[in-house]
Design brief:
Galactose-bd-like_sf; about 180 residues; about 15% helix; APC10/Doc1; four-stranded antiparallel sheet; ubl conjugation pathway; APC_su10/DOC_dom; 4 helices; mainly beta; globular
Length: about 180
């Protein structure tokens, strides 16, 4: 299924984090890239600056692989792209795959971006319209704007719900865990 995103998206991705609904779980994973120019790798992709970026260096598709140590519930993948600054380096078509390991990935979502500037959040849902649970996510840049060869992605965030159903995730907040303990007693 192909989803199209326009350049008019204005998303405050930090609102749900401030409200305690979602949390960023990318720091719990091991990140790897299909290729990168020296000084434009995972560290630049994961820092908190919109001025740095990952730059691929090789043939398409360019991939970012995110592997978790345990099965993790993923609400969405958010990426920051800037067409005005990156032009032909800006991703145009992306594929997001999920699975247990690199050899069993299946496509969850395919999106087309139209000159994005800012955050683009891609919800990842299973067949029952619930957030997916997975060990691994792979983001593949299938094509760039203006038929560019290499790609720039400035930031990627992987977000998980703080509460999934009625059960809070471990290590979310002490007050939630205390309330759970009191409820059990």
């Amino acid at each position: 299924m192909l989803t199209k995103f326009s350049d008019a998206q204005t998303v405050d991705i930090f609102k749900d984090e401030r409200d305690g609904k979602l949390r960023e779980v990318g720091d719990q994973a091991v990140w790897s890239l299909s290729s990168c120019k020296p000084g434009f790798g995972v560290d630049q992709l994961r820092d908190d600056s919109n001025d740095t970026y990952w730059q691929s260096d090789g043939p398409q598709p360019h991939t970012v692989s995110i592997q978790f140590r345990r099965k993790t519930t993923i609400h969405d993948v958010c990426l920051y792209a800037d067409y005005k600054a990156d032009e032909s380096y800006t991703p145009n078509r992306l594929s997001i795959k999920a699975g247990n390991h690199a050899n069993d990935l299946t496509e969850v979502e395919q999106i087309e971006l139209s000159e994005p500037t800012g955050w683009v959040c891609i919800p990842l849902k299973d067949a029952h319209d619930k957030p997916i649970r997975t060990f691994m996510i792979q983001i593949a840049v299938l094509s760039n704007h203006q038929n560019g060869r290499d790609t720039h992605i400035r930031r990627i965030k992987i977000r998980s719900p703080v509460n999934y159903g009625d059960v809070p995730y471990p290590n979310t907040s002490n007050s939630v865990l205390k309330n759970l303990v009191y409820t059990i007693r």
